[in-house]
Protein backbone atom coordinates (compact mmCIF):
# COMPACT_ATOMS: atom_id res chain seq x y z
CA UNK A 1 0.00 0.00 0.00
CA UNK A 2 1.41 3.36 -1.03
CA UNK A 3 0.72 6.39 1.19
CA UNK A 4 1.81 9.86 0.11
CA UNK A 5 2.06 12.64 2.69
CA UNK A 6 1.87 16.23 1.42
CA UNK A 7 2.60 19.39 3.40
CA UNK A 8 4.11 22.80 2.78
CA UNK A 9 4.33 24.96 5.90
CA UNK A 10 6.21 24.77 9.17
CA UNK A 11 3.14 24.02 11.34
CA UNK A 12 2.08 21.19 9.01
CA UNK A 13 5.61 19.80 8.96
CA UNK A 14 5.82 19.76 12.75
CA UNK A 15 2.52 17.93 13.09
CA UNK A 16 3.12 15.51 10.21
CA UNK A 17 6.79 14.67 10.84
CA UNK A 18 6.10 12.03 13.53
CA UNK A 19 3.40 10.53 11.29
CA UNK A 20 5.79 10.29 8.32
CA UNK A 21 8.35 8.61 10.57
CA UNK A 22 5.71 6.15 11.79
CA UNK A 23 4.66 5.36 8.19
CA UNK A 24 8.31 4.87 7.19
CA UNK A 25 8.68 2.29 9.95
CA UNK A 26 5.46 0.38 9.22
CA UNK A 27 5.72 -2.91 7.40
CA UNK A 28 3.34 -3.18 4.44
CA UNK A 29 3.29 0.57 3.76
CA UNK A 30 5.36 2.34 1.12
CA UNK A 31 5.68 5.91 2.35
CA UNK A 32 6.23 8.81 -0.08
CA UNK A 33 6.81 12.39 1.09
CA UNK A 34 6.03 15.42 -1.08
CA UNK A 35 6.53 18.98 0.16
CA UNK A 36 5.20 22.04 -1.62
CA UNK A 37 7.45 24.50 0.26
CA UNK A 38 4.64 27.03 0.63
CA UNK A 39 7.05 28.11 3.38
CA UNK A 40 10.68 27.46 2.43
CA UNK A 41 13.21 28.23 5.13
CA UNK A 42 10.92 27.45 8.06
CA UNK A 43 9.88 24.17 6.44
CA UNK A 44 13.49 23.14 5.88
CA UNK A 45 14.30 23.70 9.55
CA UNK A 46 11.64 21.18 10.60
CA UNK A 47 12.68 18.62 7.97
CA UNK A 48 16.23 18.84 9.29
CA UNK A 49 15.16 18.56 12.94
CA UNK A 50 13.13 15.40 12.29
CA UNK A 51 15.64 14.08 9.73
CA UNK A 52 13.14 13.81 6.88
CA UNK A 53 14.16 13.90 3.22
CA UNK A 54 11.29 14.57 0.78
CA UNK A 55 10.90 12.38 -2.30
CA UNK A 56 9.41 15.39 -4.11
CA UNK A 57 9.83 19.12 -3.48
CA UNK A 58 7.59 21.42 -5.54
CA UNK A 59 9.46 24.49 -4.21
CA UNK A 60 6.59 26.84 -5.01
CA UNK A 61 7.45 29.70 -2.63
CA UNK A 62 7.76 33.09 -4.32
CA UNK A 63 8.09 36.57 -2.75
CA UNK A 64 4.71 38.18 -2.04
CA UNK A 65 2.83 35.18 -3.43
CA UNK A 66 -0.97 35.34 -3.33
CA UNK A 67 -3.33 32.65 -2.11
CA UNK A 68 -4.49 32.10 -5.69
CA UNK A 69 -0.92 31.58 -6.86
CA UNK A 70 -0.21 29.08 -4.07
CA UNK A 71 -3.38 27.15 -4.90
CA UNK A 72 -2.73 26.97 -8.63
CA UNK A 73 0.96 26.12 -8.25
CA UNK A 74 0.20 23.26 -5.84
CA UNK A 75 -2.54 21.93 -8.14
CA UNK A 76 -0.33 21.96 -11.23
CA UNK A 77 2.79 20.72 -9.45
CA UNK A 78 1.05 17.83 -7.72
CA UNK A 79 -0.72 16.63 -10.84
CA UNK A 80 2.46 15.14 -12.33
CA UNK A 81 3.62 13.70 -9.01
CA UNK A 82 0.29 11.96 -8.42
CA UNK A 83 0.18 10.58 -11.96
CA UNK A 84 3.69 9.16 -11.56
CA UNK A 85 3.34 7.71 -8.04
CA UNK A 86 -0.33 6.64 -8.11
CA UNK A 87 -0.64 6.46 -4.30
CA UNK A 88 -3.53 4.63 -2.66
CA UNK A 89 -3.99 7.42 -0.12
CA UNK A 90 -2.80 11.02 0.12
CA UNK A 91 -2.51 12.45 3.64
CA UNK A 92 -2.92 16.18 4.21
CA UNK A 93 -2.99 18.18 7.41
CA UNK A 94 -5.16 20.86 8.89
CA UNK A 95 -6.09 24.09 7.17
CA UNK A 96 -3.38 25.52 4.92
CA UNK A 97 -3.72 26.39 1.25
CA UNK A 98 -1.41 23.45 0.51
CA UNK A 99 -3.88 21.20 2.38
CA UNK A 100 -6.89 22.24 0.32
CA UNK A 101 -5.05 22.28 -3.01
CA UNK A 102 -3.46 18.87 -2.37
CA UNK A 103 -6.84 17.44 -1.43
CA UNK A 104 -8.38 18.86 -4.60
CA UNK A 105 -5.51 17.59 -6.79
CA UNK A 106 -5.94 14.12 -5.31
CA UNK A 107 -9.69 14.22 -5.87
CA UNK A 108 -9.12 15.12 -9.52
CA UNK A 109 -7.00 11.95 -9.82
CA UNK A 110 -9.65 9.94 -7.90
CA UNK A 111 -7.15 9.17 -5.14
CA UNK A 112 -8.43 8.77 -1.59
CA UNK A 113 -7.64 11.60 0.82
CA UNK A 114 -6.91 11.28 4.53
CA UNK A 115 -7.39 14.51 6.48
CA UNK A 116 -5.27 14.74 9.63
CA UNK A 117 -6.56 17.19 12.27
CA UNK A 118 -10.05 17.09 10.80
CA UNK A 119 -13.23 18.64 12.13
CA UNK A 120 -12.04 21.91 13.68
CA UNK A 121 -14.52 24.74 13.07
CA UNK A 122 -15.15 28.40 13.98
CA UNK A 123 -18.18 28.63 11.64
CA UNK A 124 -16.94 32.03 10.46
CA UNK A 125 -15.53 31.60 6.96
CA UNK A 126 -13.38 34.72 7.26
CA UNK A 127 -11.84 33.89 10.64
CA UNK A 128 -9.28 32.47 10.54
CA UNK A 129 -8.85 33.45 6.89
CA UNK A 130 -8.37 31.51 4.63
CA UNK A 131 -7.85 28.59 7.02
CA UNK A 132 -11.47 28.02 8.03
CA UNK A 133 -12.63 27.39 4.47
CA UNK A 134 -9.48 25.44 3.58
CA UNK A 135 -10.38 23.04 6.38
CA UNK A 136 -14.08 22.84 5.56
CA UNK A 137 -13.49 22.23 1.86
CA UNK A 138 -10.81 19.61 2.56
CA UNK A 139 -13.25 17.91 4.91
CA UNK A 140 -15.69 17.41 2.05
CA UNK A 141 -12.98 16.07 -0.26
CA UNK A 142 -11.63 13.62 2.32
CA UNK A 143 -12.28 9.87 2.55
CA UNK A 144 -10.76 9.47 6.03
CA UNK A 145 -11.09 11.99 8.83
CA UNK A 146 -8.57 11.82 11.67
CA UNK A 147 -10.22 14.01 14.29
CA UNK A 148 -8.26 15.05 17.40
CA UNK A 149 -11.30 15.15 19.73
CA UNK A 150 -14.89 14.02 20.20
CA UNK A 151 -16.06 17.59 19.51
CA UNK A 152 -14.24 17.56 16.15
CA UNK A 153 -15.99 14.29 15.29
CA UNK A 154 -19.37 15.79 16.18
CA UNK A 155 -18.67 18.81 13.95
CA UNK A 156 -18.12 16.42 11.04
CA UNK A 157 -21.24 14.40 11.84
CA UNK A 158 -23.30 17.62 11.69
CA UNK A 159 -21.97 18.08 8.15
CA UNK A 160 -23.25 14.62 7.19
CA UNK A 161 -19.81 12.97 7.14
CA UNK A 162 -20.16 9.19 7.49
CA UNK A 163 -19.32 8.14 11.06
CA UNK A 164 -17.54 5.01 9.78
CA UNK A 165 -14.75 7.09 8.21
CA UNK A 166 -14.11 9.33 11.26
CA UNK A 167 -11.38 8.29 13.69
CA UNK A 168 -10.69 10.05 17.01
CA UNK A 169 -6.91 10.02 17.34
CA UNK A 170 -5.72 12.92 19.49
CA UNK A 171 -3.51 15.55 17.91
CA UNK A 172 -0.20 14.60 16.29
CA UNK A 173 1.37 17.83 17.58
CA UNK A 174 1.57 16.23 21.03
CA UNK A 175 3.54 13.33 19.50
CA UNK A 176 5.97 15.83 17.96
CA UNK A 177 6.19 18.00 21.07
CA UNK A 178 7.00 15.15 23.43
CA UNK A 179 9.64 13.79 21.08
CA UNK A 180 11.45 17.14 20.90
CA UNK A 181 11.10 18.52 24.42
CA UNK A 182 12.49 15.37 26.08
CA UNK A 183 15.90 15.94 24.48
CA UNK A 184 18.49 18.00 26.46
CA UNK A 185 18.74 21.51 25.01
CA UNK A 186 20.58 24.79 25.61
CA UNK A 187 19.54 28.02 23.89
CA UNK A 188 21.81 29.44 21.19
CA UNK A 189 19.95 32.75 20.86
CA UNK A 190 21.96 35.40 22.71
CA UNK A 191 18.88 37.07 24.22
CA UNK A 192 17.50 33.81 25.62
CA UNK A 193 20.89 32.76 26.98
CA UNK A 194 20.96 35.86 29.21
CA UNK A 195 17.53 35.34 30.81
CA UNK A 196 17.36 33.71 34.22
CA UNK A 197 14.31 31.52 33.74
CA UNK A 198 14.45 30.38 37.38
CA UNK A 199 14.05 33.88 38.82
CA UNK A 200 12.10 35.70 36.12
CA UNK A 201 8.53 35.15 34.95
CA UNK A 202 8.70 34.81 31.19
CA UNK A 203 5.68 35.46 28.96
CA UNK A 204 6.08 34.13 25.44
CA UNK A 205 4.07 35.94 22.76
CA UNK A 206 3.19 35.02 19.19
CA UNK A 207 0.99 37.17 16.99
CA UNK A 208 0.67 37.00 13.22
CA UNK A 209 -2.92 36.30 12.10
CA UNK A 210 -4.14 38.22 9.04
CA UNK A 211 -7.35 39.16 10.84
CA UNK A 212 -5.32 40.75 13.67
CA UNK A 213 -3.31 43.09 11.43
CA UNK A 214 -3.92 46.75 12.18
CA UNK A 215 -5.88 47.96 15.22
CA UNK A 216 -6.26 44.50 16.77
CA UNK A 217 -2.51 43.97 16.78
CA UNK A 218 -1.93 47.43 18.22
CA UNK A 219 -4.27 46.53 21.08
CA UNK A 220 -2.47 43.24 21.71
CA UNK A 221 0.96 44.87 21.74
CA UNK A 222 -0.36 47.76 23.84
CA UNK A 223 -1.50 45.33 26.53
CA UNK A 224 1.88 43.59 26.46
CA UNK A 225 3.65 46.93 26.87
CA UNK A 226 1.57 47.75 29.96
CA UNK A 227 2.43 44.39 31.52
CA UNK A 228 6.14 44.98 31.00
CA UNK A 229 5.91 48.47 32.48
CA UNK A 230 3.96 47.32 35.55
CA UNK A 231 5.72 44.06 36.52
CA UNK A 232 9.48 44.38 36.90
CA UNK A 233 9.99 40.62 37.40
CA UNK A 234 8.44 39.82 34.00
CA UNK A 235 10.37 39.25 30.78
CA UNK A 236 8.35 39.21 27.55
CA UNK A 237 9.74 37.34 24.55
CA UNK A 238 8.22 37.88 21.14
CA UNK A 239 9.78 35.93 18.26
CA UNK A 240 8.54 38.30 15.56
CA UNK A 241 6.78 36.90 12.53
CA UNK A 242 8.49 37.77 9.24
CA UNK A 243 5.44 39.61 7.86
CA UNK A 244 6.63 43.24 7.40
CA UNK A 245 3.28 44.63 8.63
CA UNK A 246 3.54 42.61 11.85
CA UNK A 247 7.13 43.75 12.42
CA UNK A 248 6.27 47.39 11.76
CA UNK A 249 3.52 47.35 14.38
CA UNK A 250 5.63 45.46 16.92
CA UNK A 251 8.56 47.84 16.55
CA UNK A 252 6.30 50.91 16.78
CA UNK A 253 4.78 49.84 20.10
CA UNK A 254 7.30 47.50 21.76
CA UNK A 255 10.76 48.40 20.52
CA UNK A 256 12.91 49.76 23.35
CA UNK A 257 10.46 48.84 26.13
CA UNK A 258 12.47 47.44 29.08
CA UNK A 259 12.25 43.63 29.44
CA UNK A 260 10.44 43.22 26.10
CA UNK A 261 12.63 41.20 23.75
CA UNK A 262 11.82 41.33 20.04
CA UNK A 263 13.77 38.47 18.51
CA UNK A 264 13.81 36.68 15.17
CA UNK A 265 11.59 33.61 14.67
CA UNK A 266 12.86 30.52 16.46
CA UNK A 267 13.21 27.05 15.05
CA UNK A 268 10.90 24.44 16.53
CA UNK A 269 13.30 22.92 19.06
CA UNK A 270 14.28 26.19 20.78
CA UNK A 271 10.69 27.43 20.58
CA UNK A 272 9.30 24.34 22.31
CA UNK A 273 11.93 24.67 25.01
CA UNK A 274 11.08 28.37 25.41
CA UNK A 275 7.43 27.42 25.92
CA UNK A 276 8.45 24.83 28.50
CA UNK A 277 10.35 27.50 30.48
CA UNK A 278 7.66 30.19 30.18
CA UNK A 279 5.24 31.28 32.88
CA UNK A 280 2.36 31.58 30.44
CA UNK A 281 1.63 32.16 26.74
CA UNK A 282 -0.15 34.94 24.83
CA UNK A 283 -0.91 33.86 21.26
CA UNK A 284 -3.18 34.01 18.24
CA UNK A 285 -1.70 30.72 16.98
CA UNK A 286 -3.80 27.59 16.68
CA UNK A 287 -1.07 25.07 17.38
CA UNK A 288 0.12 26.70 20.60
CA UNK A 289 -3.35 26.24 22.09
CA UNK A 290 -2.62 22.51 21.84
CA UNK A 291 1.09 22.49 22.66
CA UNK A 292 1.30 24.76 25.69
CA UNK A 293 -1.27 22.81 27.78
CA UNK A 294 0.79 19.65 27.26
CA UNK A 295 3.61 21.53 29.01
CA UNK A 296 1.36 22.81 31.81
CA UNK A 297 1.41 26.41 30.55
CA UNK A 298 -1.72 28.60 30.62
CA UNK A 299 -2.66 30.14 27.26
CA UNK A 300 -4.42 33.44 26.58
CA UNK A 301 -5.81 33.40 23.05
CA UNK A 302 -5.87 36.88 21.48
CA UNK A 303 -8.61 36.23 18.95
CA UNK A 304 -12.37 36.75 18.84
CA UNK A 305 -13.03 33.02 18.49
CA UNK A 306 -11.13 29.77 18.38
CA UNK A 307 -11.54 26.55 16.42
CA UNK A 308 -10.08 24.79 19.47
CA UNK A 309 -12.78 25.33 22.12
CA UNK A 310 -11.78 22.12 23.91
CA UNK A 311 -8.83 23.95 25.47
CA UNK A 312 -11.13 26.69 26.75
CA UNK A 313 -13.62 24.15 28.12
CA UNK A 314 -10.83 22.15 29.79
CA UNK A 315 -9.51 25.34 31.39
CA UNK A 316 -6.05 25.21 29.81
CA UNK A 317 -6.77 28.27 27.63
CA UNK A 318 -8.88 31.41 27.87
CA UNK A 319 -10.22 33.52 25.03
CA UNK A 320 -8.84 36.99 25.74
CA UNK A 321 -10.17 38.64 22.58
CA UNK A 322 -8.61 41.70 20.97
CA UNK A 323 -9.49 44.46 23.43
CA UNK A 324 -6.44 46.05 25.10
CA UNK A 325 -8.01 46.34 28.56
CA UNK A 326 -9.31 42.76 28.54
CA UNK A 327 -5.98 41.26 27.43
CA UNK A 328 -4.17 43.30 30.07
CA UNK A 329 -6.62 42.37 32.85
CA UNK A 330 -6.58 38.64 32.05
CA UNK A 331 -2.78 38.62 31.87
CA UNK A 332 -2.49 40.54 35.14
CA UNK A 333 -4.81 38.02 36.81
CA UNK A 334 -2.36 35.22 36.02
CA UNK A 335 0.50 37.27 37.46
CA UNK A 336 -1.17 38.26 40.73
CA UNK A 337 -3.60 35.40 41.47
CA UNK A 338 -1.79 32.12 42.19
CA UNK A 339 -5.03 30.13 42.44
CA UNK A 340 -6.19 31.31 39.02
CA UNK A 341 -2.79 30.45 37.56
CA UNK A 342 -2.70 26.98 39.14
CA UNK A 343 -6.21 26.20 37.92
CA UNK A 344 -5.11 26.71 34.31
CA UNK A 345 -1.64 25.19 34.66
CA UNK A 346 -2.94 21.96 36.19
CA UNK A 347 -5.92 21.42 33.89
CA UNK A 348 -5.86 18.26 31.77
CA UNK A 349 -4.75 18.73 28.16
CA UNK A 350 -7.67 17.64 25.93
CA UNK A 351 -5.54 17.05 22.84
CA UNK A 352 -4.15 13.62 23.45
CA UNK A 353 -1.48 11.38 24.90
CA UNK A 354 1.25 11.36 22.25
CA UNK A 355 -0.06 8.26 20.41
CA UNK A 356 -2.08 9.95 17.65
CA UNK A 357 0.26 8.81 14.86
CA UNK A 358 0.01 5.22 16.03
CA UNK A 359 -3.80 5.37 15.76
CA UNK A 360 -3.71 6.96 12.30
CA UNK A 361 -1.30 4.33 10.94
CA UNK A 362 -3.47 1.59 12.40
CA UNK A 363 -6.55 2.97 10.62
CA UNK A 364 -4.70 3.27 7.30
CA UNK A 365 -3.36 -0.28 7.59
CA UNK A 366 -6.82 -1.61 8.36
CA UNK A 367 -8.16 0.11 5.23
CA UNK A 368 -5.34 -1.38 3.15
CA UNK A 369 -5.97 -4.88 4.43
CA UNK A 370 -9.71 -4.55 3.85
CA UNK A 371 -9.11 -3.34 0.27
CA UNK A 372 -6.73 -6.24 -0.41
CA UNK A 373 -9.20 -8.81 0.96
CA UNK A 374 -12.10 -7.36 -1.03
CA UNK A 375 -10.05 -7.65 -4.24
TrEMBL record:
Coiled-coil segments: none
Cross-referenced InterPro entries: UDP_GlcNAc_Epimerase_2_dom, WecB-like
Single GO term (MF): UDP-N-acetylglucosamine 2-epimerase activity
Keywords carried by this UniProt record: Isomerase
E.C. designation(s): 5.1.3.14
The keyword Isomerase is assigned to this record: yes
Pfam entry (one): Epimerase_2
Domain UDP-N-acetylglucosamine 2-epimerase positions: 21-365
Keyword Isomerase (UniProt): yes
UniProt record similarity statement: Belongs to the UDP-N-acetylglucosamine 2-epimerase family.
Record's protein name: UDP-N-acetylglucosamine 2-epimerase (non-hydrolyzing)
Species this protein is from: Clostridium aminobutyricum
Annotated gene: wecB
